[in-house]
Design a protein that fits this description.
The protein has five helices and two strands. With 114 residues, it is of the alpha+beta class. It has a two-stranded antiparallel sheet. The longest helix has 20 residues. The chain starts with 11 loop residues before the first helix and ends with a strand.
Length: 114
């Protein structure tokens, strides 16, 4: 029997009908960035925890992709703790087309997270 293959979207969380798929994808991407930086620096989970102000068990959850443990805001604070500047870009939603196109930038805000 031949299996039917269905092409997914760019968001796996949308494909599996998760609650808040855009937010879940954003958190997942940021968690991956934090994990990559921890690995590139060669940090242990304990060392990373000291930088991120987290216990080792939470660092383990971060590295293992436990989305439910961290809010988007908390993840942005962790990126900042690792020496990154976090930008949030706000754009108007396109009303003329259903095709995803780059949108006109309305306002760009530099968020300093300490």
């Amino acid at each position: 029997m031949k299996e039917k293959i269905i092409k997914g979207s760019d968001n796996v969380f949308k494909d599996i009908e998760a609650k808040n798929p855009k937010q879940s994808l954003a958190r997942s991407v940021i968690m991956s960035l934090i994990t990559k930086e921890i690995q590139e620096r060669g940090l242990t989970q304990i060392q990373a925890g000291k930088i991120l102000d987290l216990p080792q068990s939470k660092v383990s959850g971060l590295i293992n992709g436990k989305l439910s443990l961290f809010s988007l805001e908390h993840l942005c604070k962790m990126l900042a703790a690792l020496g990154n500047t976090v930008y949030i870009s706000i754009r108007k939603k396109s009303q003329t087309s259903k095709v995803h196109k780059p949108r006109k930038r309305v306002k760009e805000v530099l968020v300093k997270v300490q």
